[in-house]
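Thread: Modeling a multi-component assembly for a lab meeting

Hi all, long-time lurker, first post. My supervisor asked me to bring a structural picture of a complex we are working on to next week's group meeting, and I have zero experience with this. I have the sequence lines for every component (973 residues in total). Could someone generate the structure of the whole assembly? Inputs are pasted exactly as I received them:
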Amino acid sequence: MLQAKQAEPVQEANPYLPQSAKLLEIKSEVGGPRPIKRLKIEKCFEYRPGQCAMLSLPGVGEVMLAISSSPTRKTMEFGIMKAGVATAALHGLSAGEYLGVRGPYGNGFPLESWRGKNIVLIGGGIGITPVWSILQYVLDNRDQYGRLDFIYGARSSADLCYHEDLEQLQSSKELSLHLSIDVEEPGWQGFTGFVPQNLIEVSPKAEGSVAVTCGPPIMIKFVIKNLIELGFQPAQIFTTLERRMKCGIGKCGRCNIGELYVCKDGPVFSYETLQRYPEATE
Amino acid sequence: MQTDEIKKLLADKLSKGELRAVIGYRRGTNPFFRRPLITSSAEELEELDFSPLGVENLSTYITDTVRKRRARRRDPEEHYKPTAVVLRGCHSRALNVLLQEKLIPREELFVVGLPCRGVADPHKAQTLWHARAENRDHRNVVIDEQGLFELRNGQKVRLADFEEISDECHGYCRTPNPLFYDVLVGEPVAEEPVAAESQFKDVEEFLKKPVEERWRFWSEQFSRCIRCYACKNICPACSCQECSLAKDTEQPLVADAKVRKTFWLGKQQDPANNAAYHINRALHLAGRCVSCGECERACPVGIPLLLLYRSVAKQVFDNYDYEAGMDGEAEPIMTRFSTEDSEDFMEE
Amino acid sequence: MIRYIENLRQFLDEVAEGYKIFVPRQRPEGWFFEAYGGAEVELEGYPNTVASPKEYLFPQNETLYRYEAGEEGLKYDNETAEQTGQVIFGARACDCAALTRLDQVFLEDDKDPYYAARRENTVMIGLVCPGAVAPSCFCTEVGLSPAGVAGMDLRATEVGEGLVIEEISDRGAALFGSPALKGGKSWREASAEEAAEAKRLQEAAERDMAPARDLAEIELEFDNPIWARESERCIGCGICAFLCPTCHCFTIEHSGSKRKGKAIRTWDTCQFQAYSLEASGFNPRPDREQRLKQRLYHKFKYFSDRYGMLLCIGCGRCVSACPVNIDIREILASFERKKSVTS
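Re: Modeling a multi-component assembly
Sure thing. I ran the full set together rather than chain by chain. Output:
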């Protein structure tokens, strides 16, 4: 068995190996110094809402992103803010080009255990991307869930993501949309103020509900505070965390919070879990 | 001043709020060199130690803790309080380099000058200990100005004279006394330092070898490098907020600076990248390295870095009659030119 | 079978017919593992190597895959993995135990095929320590032993002029069944006295290192002032992590163009400031204090919470190599024992 052999290609499955995926559509959502683009790529694998994928840009690197679409849809969608080299390369792609994808990674949202409950989604800015997958999933399985409230805000109306979809959803009877912008703007019909304040305005009832919040850390801090005030238990509150990642499979050690790896044990965590980790609350 | 008086003076200044912190040496768990002490507690100052085992170039902490913290606005009220630092001669040269480059104002330093009659080379001392000690327990190690001793039944038994364990820097030291200070520990060294023209004898032999042989030597040495960056991080002259040779290891000062877009080197530890790292760093230190030797002491795989940096220092001296850090007011050699500069290196 | 090797060189020469061999050798800079190359192996005064043997299973650089852009998309190919058998002779018990820790990470879910291939093809011949081989050794304080067998395939004990060799794993036994060694020219069965002497030496080594405390029992405190105090002098290099036999953090970088290139894995360390730095500029561990805490917690709590064993194996390399004398044994001494759990 252990004789000198020629070097051969590794036979076993290589978890680091991406697969080639075609970029179907790329659309600008938000402009400005930190632009956000929406990318649709061909669906390469099955996944659950809340799971993530590593997008690989040849010659540049990889970045772990929340899959913004629900698995009930035909394509895989990502909402990407340009921040570093990998996201900048993603922003530079055109439809028809190819990139690498591997996944799905992470735990995803426990949607099965949420059946019959009211779903309260609270997002800010780019934080819409993970909760969007829940929204689409619930809409596609509408009779399995109770109320669906989506509380979403951004700095200004130009900073709201997925605004075309939001416009369509305004008139839907399937959910209640509560949009907000931080600062006064002429012609704005919705709430003016920060998302946590809007949450108090909406005042969703805690009983029989779960709340999911994603967005800037400061927003999450106050949203959670307000949810507790509204009577939500820590076990009813969920968020997604992010950390810099490289392997995505819990081996490179980088994304840890305590003994948990955000890539593998997260990115979805209940507030009840997070309270046990001093490192998580920044 | 005697060491007790100095300890009292510093403790006094600390308690009165006149000092931000004191950077010196103290005993640690390694008997072959002293541990840096960085403290703002007057009680911890009791541990302050001035033995020949205090080898670290403490001016490296000036750039690290004092300068970088100021840049991040860590303690606004403490902004202008001086930091006390213990410096041997070569270490004061290193601080001169920082002063020349306007990295820290002189007023923010309270220098405790330490005249140096030689330091113990931790590697030599440890090797001789292993070879000659009866009972290798580290608790029995005693090193002072007289040499290396083993404590046997409470008695000091000499294992080696100080000469045997002393660092070779003695052979090329240009500054046995600190070049500047606010207070001096003990008596200054009376002997003349090594003359400028004869300070590079240790590298002359090597530099006489043909370039192919020298390249082979360095290629073999660099191939063993594990890119831990200890040499760079412990060096006081390596004070760049964002090192172009190790961008992936340090956070840029300004969050929006996407400096990691351009890498000068690959992160891979291979002969090409390793050689590029070391050669570039040696050139960046031209006219700035004071031969304190910390890089070589810190290197876990024993690359003879001093030989590399002193080779560059010799070229600076031969071409420009300049020695790093000898004058804190002088303009740094590599940031100026003069029409009288030597052009010998240019070939027809 | 318990075997005896009278002449180590003869044995290694036979093994070399089928395997690459790495042995400890003394250089002016210290002891390092090197390719055997046929020269005599002098074990007199051998403590432990400066760098651990983890590089033979988890190299500092390793290509993970290659890519090439084409008309129909990107082509991704596995890298060829070194499948030549290799023997690491003279690894200490602590370094062999370190492999059981790396196994937890690399061989669980989403098995790492490169590590797996090397592990499969490596025979660890561990060498029993005479006791503590360096002043910074503390393997017994983390529940290991200088004569331990975790992670080992064969255990060698210096008895008389040669070595007593005990089989620890099937892989170790299989080495003696390989064509090169089957003839039994460089080894024979050990006598009862030789085997007994080996056992005696192993027990003496353990007694020599009877631990003063059990580091699995201490309770670390997140807000203890020691983190700030000890990290103050840290220079933020990678010596502790890169020399450590169990540190396994890595980064993956692309080398090449948009059209063609490869992804390379390289060692990284949580001690570098930019390790967890996100593109937004946010860094969950911006200060050395937090990074030192992360290192200690990972070794003494996070890893054991996840895998049921301490990540530190007590070799003491980080202690002796730290240029500013940050000593984890000293830091750990500040913490109290956990309150015992009543069942």
